[in-house]
Amino acid sequence: MSLSGKDKTVVKNFWAKVAPKTAEIGGEALGRMLTAYPQTKTYFAHWSDLSPSSAQVKKHGATIMAAIGDAVSKIDDLTGSLSALSELHAFKLRVDPANFRILAHNLILCMGMFFPADFTPEVHLSVDKFLQNLALALSEKYR
Amino acid sequence: MVKWTELERSTVKAIWEKIDIDEIGSQIWARVLIVYPWTERYFGSFGDLFTITAILKNDKVAAHGRMVLTALDKAVNNMDNMKRTYADLSRLHFQKLEVDPDSFRLLADCITITIACKLKSALSPQSQAIWQKFISAVVDAMSSQYR
């Protein structure tokens, strides 16, 4: 399910709209993921506070969203632009790629929550495809 | 059998009380068909589903969404008996309608996302977790007769 020209435009336009809130959305999404999918906590056992209000969680969520925003700007070559991050996740963090889908679900939920009028089914479709392609690019170096 | 705490029961009911089946039902069904277009395979009789605009305007889509949410009401009121409550529906979806049970998971995600869009921050992370436990149990009950 590769990204069409239309998907790329929709994603870029939506990202421009949500830009002022991306850090907040990221923190919120990560907090919700850790709460609703406790198995994901296994990757963050080194943090002292895994609650949605944790400063560590909010900071890391913002970091993730910044990386996703960077990917949006390089949407024509996700595999290339995510190469270093893919190596990090594959060899150092060793995150099971199944979790990328779980995080994507929570990111989508938060985008809809913060921008309900803009997150139409059409936008949802393109963003869902984009996050799937992103996950694929992030898994590239795994094996 | 899934065990529910008092907090979980009251949270699910509180969320459900805020949902207008007429308003949300049609939105959810349109979202499923648009975001996961392969689900259209089950709705050959619904007429024009060829464009996003057509799906959003389709009366049969709206009616089906409302019907499905009305059935979800049964789960909210029978949280301790979900498998029994949905046994017949599950068999129907397996034997007669021939629906891939993975579709139930896609629908569950769209229901959760649509509710989040509606309730916004009123759906706290803890409430989302509880709601997702509930909707997963519904998906399990709907898949239970697939054998």
Strand and helix map with partners:
The complex is a heterodimer of chains A (143) and B (147).
Chain A (H helix, E strand, L loop, with lengths): L4 H14 L3 H15 L18 H19 L4 H4 L1 H11 L4 H17 L6 H18 L5
Helix pairs in contact in A: 1-7, 2-3, 2-6, 6-7
Chain B lengths: L5 H12 L3 H15 L16 H6 L1 H19 L4 H15 L5 H18 L5 H19 L4
Helix pairs in contact in B: 1-7, 2-4, 2-6, 5-7, 6-7
Tag the structure with descriptive keywords.
heterodimer, A: 143 residues, mainly alpha, 7 helices, B: 147 residues
**Overall SS class of chain A:** mainly alpha
Q: What is the SS-derived class of chain B?
A: mainly alpha
Oligomer: heterodimer
Distance between the termini of chain B: 19 Å
* Arithmetic mean of pLDDT of chain A: 96
Categorize the overall geometry of chain A.
Answer: globular
- Unreliable stretches of chain A (pLDDT < 50, length at least 5) are none
Number of separate helices of chain A: 7
Sheet with most strands of chain B: none
- Order of H and E elements of chain B: HHHHHHH
N/C terminus separation of chain A: 21 Å
- Helix and strand pattern of chain A: HHHHHHH
Major sheet details of chain A: none
Walkthrough of the structure:
The complex is a heterodimer of chains A (143) and B (147). Chain A has 143 residues and is mostly helical. In chain A, 69% of the residues lie in helices and 0% in strands. Chain A has 7 helices and no strands. Chain B has 147 residues and is mainly α. Chain B has helices at residues 6-17, 21-35, 52-57, 59-77, 82-96, 102-119, 125-143. Chains A and B meet through helix 2, helix 6 and helix 7 of A and helix 2, helix 3, helix 6 and helix 7 of B.
Care to give the gist of this entry?
The complex is a heterodimer of chains A (143) and B (147). Chain A is mainly alpha-helical and 143 residues long. Chain A is built from 7 helices and no strands.
